[in-house]
Amino acid sequence: MANEIEVHLCRVEDIDKTLKQLWLALALEMFEVEHYTMPSEANADRWANFVRESLTGGKSFLLVAKSEGKVVGFAYATIFRDYPLDVAELIGAINDVYVLPEFRGKSIGKKLMIECMNKMQAEDVKAVRLIVLSENGSAVKLYQRLGFRIFRYGMIKPLKH
Question: How would CATH label the architecture of 2-145?
């Protein structure tokens, strides 16, 4: 149940094989839809190294959801503190959210999202952005229930060679 789920802030040293496997599962699901980022062990290692660097630099944070001590989901987010251009307000981005299929429908994604937004609000972030695949209807509905709205359309056109 969702009330048995604990959400924790992940430390650099906590990024392990389990988190890489979760990212790999996310990449596999996304690849089935968009055919872009290759779901490979090498990419999982690159992702883990990238996240470690961004956590060390204080640019990002990673939340993990645990059920009975087992990591069942995560949310990776960035706060754009050192954006190279002048901006009107501090914004953040929720980059990745993933929950194992067998744990979906238990409000874990919602809990991760709310924790991300609370952490960003505490850091004086004024707006949060995210990108979601249009085919991911359940995620789109969750984000809309949490107050997100469409403000930009991303488009793609495959080029024939």
Answer: 3-Layer(aba) Sandwich (3.40)
